[in-house]
Amino acid sequence: MLADVLLGAPLNVITAGPDLFRAAVAAQGVAVTPVDWQPPASATGLASLWCDAVDAANRIALERLLAAQPVLVDVRPAIEVVPGMTQDTILHAGPPITWERMSGPLRGAIAGALVYEDLAATREEAEQRAARGAADFDPCHHHAAVGPMAGVTTASMPVFVVENRAAGNRAYATLNEGLGKVLRYGAYAPEVIDRLRWFRDVLGPALGEAVRRLGGIDLRALIGQAVQMGDECHNRNRAASALLIKALAPEIAALDLAARERARILTFTGGNEHFFLNVSMAACKAALDAAHGVPDSTLVTTMARNGTDFGIRVSGLPDQWFSGPAEIPQGLFFPGYGPADANPDIGDSAITETAGLGGFAMGGAPAIVQFVGGTAAEALRYTRLMYEITLAENPAYRIPALDFRGTPTGIDVRLVAQTGILPQINTGMAHREAGIGQIGAGLVRPPRVCFDRALEALAREHRH
Amino acid sequence: MRAFNFVWPSAYHDSVTLMRLTRDLESVPGVARAAAMMGTPQNRVLMQDAGLLTAAGEAAGPPDLVIAVVAADEASARQAEGAARAALTGRATTGGGYGATPRPRTLASALRAVPDANVALISIPGLYAAAEARRALRAGLHVMLFSDNVPIDQEIELKRFARERGLMLMGPDCGTAVVNGVPLGFANAVPRGRIGIAAASGTGAQEVMSVIARCGEGVSHVIGVGGRDLSDAVGGLAMEQALEALAADPGTSVVCVIGKPPGATVARRLESQIERVGKPCAMHFVGSGTASLEDCARDAVALARGEKHHPVAFTVPDAELARVASEARRGRRPEQRFVRGVYSGGTLAWEARSILDATLGDVAPGVTGTGSGHRVVDLGEDIFTVGRPHPMIDGAVRREWIAREAADPATAVLLLDVVLGYGAHADPAGELLLAIEAARDQAGQRGAALAVVASVTGTDADPQNRSAQVSRLRGAGVAVMPSNAQAARLAARIAAR
């Protein structure tokens, strides 16, 4: 009865608008919460998407995202496990792109990969081969895979196999090469190729055997623990990498392999603070793929960059990318480099932010803000701001500094359009020229136009 | 007593958190001992030794959380698991943690912080207001939609939407409500009492509640249903709800209905709706007949006291009236013939126009300030408020309009409303006096004298204090009447030949 619920109950008021009405309510000693309302910057189609059908769709997508139970189950050559992989396939980060529009680091990585696969002898030959269309380029994301930075993945590269035990789907990512001259930053020197071949011949099979013997490694629990140890599992993976190696070490030690190789494996993985990054990405990908393809859902399921374009995908329109020009990250540079050297934003690693980690969990990883010259308070501010554009808090990933509040999870295109707040991404920076590698790290945001386009398309689709 | 185990797969929690939880679990009735631990081999041994482990817990792995209790029965054990779930998966307080929490940017975000919220007060630009109101309704909140310039089709849709959900959408285009003594939008500080007001008029409601308070009665609730609610287009959707709510409200013994004249269809429906209220009802539609808002308020007061109300034109003694009128006519030039009403309140403007029209000829139709004779303008109309604050909040538009009327040699009397209360300007009289003095100077320079008549809607409990505002105006030579209706009648008397 209206009289009971409105006239009979104590008021608890939310206000949107000038402060004077809030003050009048507050003056009566009544609970009042003001909304810092600002007009949406772009609202084409926004109104029609605030409806029960979209909310219901988002609930389904969100439930699948939060229910995900990613488990590292194997390490296998890409050709054996990645769907649609062929000898000529070259998977890359971000939305689809042609050779002509590719940036330096992506071209460098592709050249390196062709040399690694013995499909070309030199960089020049590799580039000619790529330019004449002899390689099949496709985004990792079209193959249940993700790759950091250039994200280049070819047939013989070993990949982590992560199974989402809740939905049964799998996701894949290559092994992390560490810092310095590495393929993912577009470096293709002989040492880079040699390392990749060692991955193929020794590290990959060894890790696969160790993981299989362990019966898999529960990644949701591992990430949850790492977040409480100061990782955000994108740009800071120290705790998670250590936890992973800790789990694997006994099995690696027990492998039927020369002691020298076992020591090299432990030295390499133990010495690579980013070793977990690719695992984290595959875990996030496995969770988000389960939430992809719910009709009417405005949940963002992909944010990815190819070094030229930034693209997003949304659950309700599974076959479309919404792209805009990738921006140059803001941050700190290694000695000798500056903003003029930086390539535009690149990599699939923003899958972590899409799943509520990375920049979204920065409040739990205060060490990371030093990269951007920030303070711990600023890291918390970034995370708190992300709650404004997300639909849920992830109960598996909790931030001690926020009283164990779950990380902001599940970006809603509608909320981005409504508030004008863009997702906050932590990222590494590649040199704009092929062959040089990482030159710094910082913060970056997607171009707004990705969300505007997604919103318009969702509204169009919703009307039909 | 026996052991029960619950295993949550891959649910990592810090050991300190879990130790704290153990204490809570042991306080659940029927639970003797408890442990909540990750299922590592060492922890399983600990639980085993403590007699807490069952086969289910034995099968758990390091990533799994084991909630183990020794309890009297399964029901108690399940209750303990429920307590653990509430403690571990319950939402952390949004305000928790280090550093400041930013203000919520969306309604949804505010609702996360205050899930118990039940009313949204929306006063953002009309272009966006309907969408926000809709979101609030969908979240189960009643809405006071203060905003102007909300398209009528959106208003109808929102009101239907609200009704389907058993919610109330107050407004738009009627910025007044008082629910449970809490002002939502423009409202006056009036005592709680037994008269409930359902108003399709903002300043009309303010005038009525202020008169009721000054008569020594109080109001239970004021439900502003929206300025267009009684039109046949909207169909009185919110008025019907308001009447039902006031009928059922035990704190309301008299109902007062005000607004502009309803559409023909709505008028018919209203009659039966009011009958169904089953409580004494005072009713007034501004612009119909010679009665006034003040009469309606006094009628409601009389009904509440079981008395009969007799309308009077003036409550000021005749001698006093005559003195004020002759004072106001002093120095007037022959070409000064007309009353010019410059209003901030829409319903008050309509009331003034209709009272002038009843005694004077040549009153311009409407309240747009056009016409060369007697005329009234409502500066709170949508056309004047697009992109500008309402004149009750900021008097700039009104000061401009007063200067404009003063520049017209035919203006004899300036008729004004001064509306006090929450949301209104902190010193509306002070703001007006600047313009009034300038207007008089301007008239004086051409040898003319301008009469100024006003009323002050409000109470002494209002933040601006009505008595203080009245004194300021009187001190500046403004004839201040007890009500808007009496002010309009006085203005008409001054202008009459």
What portion of the residues of chain B fall into strands of 2 or more residues? 15-25%
**CATH fold call of the largest domain in chain B:** Rossmann fold
Name the poorly predicted regions of chain A.
none
Please tell me what the overall shape of chain B is. elongated
Counting structural domains of chain B, the number is 3
The helicity of chain B comes to: 40-55%
- How many DSSP-defined strands of chain B? 17
Q: Identify the quaternary structure here.
A: heterodimer
List unreliable stretches of 5+ residues of chain B: none
Q: What is the C-alpha radius of gyration of chain A, as a whole number of Å?
A: 23 Å
What order do the strands of the largest sheet of chain B run in, or round the barrel if closed? 14-13-15-16-17
> CATH first level of the largest domain in chain A: which class?
Alpha Beta
Radius of gyration of chain B: 31 Å
Major sheet summary line of chain B: 5 strands, parallel
Give the overall average pLDDT of chain B: 92
Distance between the termini of chain B: 100 Å
Explained architecture:
- The complex is a heterodimer of chains A (464) and B (497).
- Chain A has 464 residues and is an alpha+beta fold.
- Chain A is 38% helix and 20% strand.
- Chain A has 3 domains: 2-38, no CATH class; 44-63 and 291-463, Alpha-Beta Complex (v583 fold); 70-281, Enterococcus faecalis V583 domain (Enterococcus faecalis V583 fold, Alpha-Beta Complex), CATH 3.90.1710.
- Chain A is built from 16 helices and 18 strands.
- In chain A, helix 4 (52-67) runs antiparallel to helix 12, helix 6 (104-116) packs across helix 7 (123-131) and helix 8 (190-214) crosses helix 10.
- Chain A starts with a helix and ends with a helix.
- The longest helix of chain B has 18 residues, at 428-445.
- With 497 residues, chain B is an alpha/beta fold.
- Chain B has helices at 15-26, 41-49, 55-58, 74-89, 107-113, 126-138, 152-164, 202-214, 237-248, 264-277, 293-304, 318-329, 346-359, 382-385, 396-406, 428-445, 466-475, 484-495, and strands at 2-8, 31-38, 65-71, 119-122, 142-145, 169-170, 178-179, 182-183, 192-199, 219-224, 254-259, 281-285, 338-343, 375-378, 411-419, 451-457, 479-481.
- A 5-stranded parallel sheet of chain B has the order 14-13-15-16-17, sandwiched between helices. A 4-stranded parallel sheet of chain B has the order 10-9-11-12, with helices on both faces.
- The mean pLDDT of chain B is 92.
